[in-house]
């Protein structure tokens, strides 16, 4: 009976440990923010991270219903930070449950494996962004009247879908910066 060599886990907070467990650490941080919603004392602080801020209600005329619009401001940084954490978690889920399973079947080399992972992540993000962007274009009547895109520029008042789309886009691209470190690509 042969003994198997056990894989030792790297020391806590070492370079390798952070690379292997960054998604778990980020999910714990996101859970702490979500747990803040449960208590009245911390709910006001936690809600700033999760919800879209700066709601403005406008009434175009007396006969029509009020319209909820959103502006931008410094509290949006907290919201972008929370959705950056969500982007890291989604990145890890796509990697583990989709891309790694495909990689095991393809038997790619290390460099092709790395390129496949990066391309797979970008393809998932672009597909999701394309579908979501098209739904916004059709729902907000930008497709039927494209002059809405540049009339009144810069657009300081946005509908919820547009502002949330922008926040998610910023969060994804900010998540991509530390992800370069975590990819651990070797020459």
From TrEMBL:
| Record-annotated TLC domain positions | 115-186
- Give the family from UniProt: Belongs to the TRAM family.
Q: Name the predominant localization.
A: membrane
Tell me what this protein is called.
Translocating chain-associated membrane protein 1-like 1
Please tell me the species this chain comes from: Xenoophorus captivus
Presence of keyword Protein transport: yes
Q: Which residues form a coiled coil?
A: none
Which InterPro entries does the UniProt record give? TLC-dom, Translocation_assoc_membrane
Would you say which domain of life the source belongs to? Answer: Eukaryota
Arranged from A to Z, the UniProt key words for this protein are: Membrane, Protein transport, Translocation, Transmembrane, Transmembrane helix, Transport
């Amino acid at each position: 009976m042969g003994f198997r060599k056990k894989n030792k886990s790297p020391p806590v907070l070492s370079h390798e440990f952070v690379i292997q467990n960054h998604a778990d650490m980020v999910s714990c941080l996101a859970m702490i923010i979500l747990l803040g919603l449960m208590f009245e004392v911390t709910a006001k602080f936690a809600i700033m991270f999760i919800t879209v801020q700066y709601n403005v209600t406008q009434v175009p005329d007396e006969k029509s219903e009020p319209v909820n619009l959103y502006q931008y401001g410094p509290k949006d940084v907290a919201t972008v930070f929370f959705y950056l954490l969500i982007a890291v978690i989604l990145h890890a889920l796509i990697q583990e449950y989709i891309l790694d399973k495909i990689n095991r079947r393809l038997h790619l080399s290390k460099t092709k494996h790395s390129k496949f992972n990066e391309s797979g992540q970008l393809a998932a993000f672009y597909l999701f962004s394309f579908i979501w962007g098209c739904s916004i274009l059709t729902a907000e009547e930008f497709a039927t009247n494209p002059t809405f895109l540049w009339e009144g520029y810069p657009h300081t008042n946005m509908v919820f879908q547009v502002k949330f789309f922008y926040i998610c886009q910023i969060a994804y691209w900010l998540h991509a910066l530390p992800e370069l470190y975590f990819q651990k690509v070797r020459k």
